[in-house]
């Protein structure tokens, strides 16, 4: 039977623990030992479409990632680039969130091997290296700001050109259009928190009129003394983007009087 031939190909190319479970005409669940970090198994389906076979995750991989990440964060910035590179390297296509690979010249085992590798590597976007996490945090910050406010109300990488023409004291985003502009700092760690503290103190010295907001990558990772000094000069803080996304957006829109 064709399913036994395909199953044997899967076992030879990937691992001996794979088996097929028939779910209907031309449709099989591919049962593998491969799992996400939280213990959930990869969802893999082999199905017949017209005159060809395809392997699909039926949208499960992205859905699984959104348990911990906002969907918009997967569609832009560093995470999006990583995912695109993984898909391209493994000949996997993204059809509106459903990941698929077509079987070419009877290469069932080779296709499954590439597909599993792609799914596992995509799932790793939640566990990037520290350098990549840092750049991803800034991507996430820009996405958050652009989703929250009209472009005309924001100036990224702002500095006070009158008092600081050499841009020594920068602000990640200045929200304008109010009597008291909102200066928003994105803080991935101690160094940037120190810089923001110095900038805010300098702005006070120049007697600028403003409000201040800080969004941390992970506030708990900031040294206690650094955080204490920063807290003395910053009006409002959020410990991270993740679970605070809606609260941050509400705060930004109310501060900017944007409905």
Principal-axes geometry comes out as elongated
Strand order of the largest sheet: 1-2-3-4-6-5
Tell me roughly what share of residues is in helical segments: 40-55%
Structural class, by secondary structure, is alpha+beta
CATH topology of the largest domain: Trna Endonuclease, Chain: A, domain 1
Task: Describe what you observe in this structure.
The relative contact order is 0.09. The strands form two sheets. A six-stranded antiparallel beta sheet has the order 1-2-3-4-6-5. The protein has a five-stranded mixed beta sheet with strand order 7-8-9-10-11, sandwiched between helices. It is an alpha+beta fold. Helix content is 42%, strand content 21%. The protein is elongated.
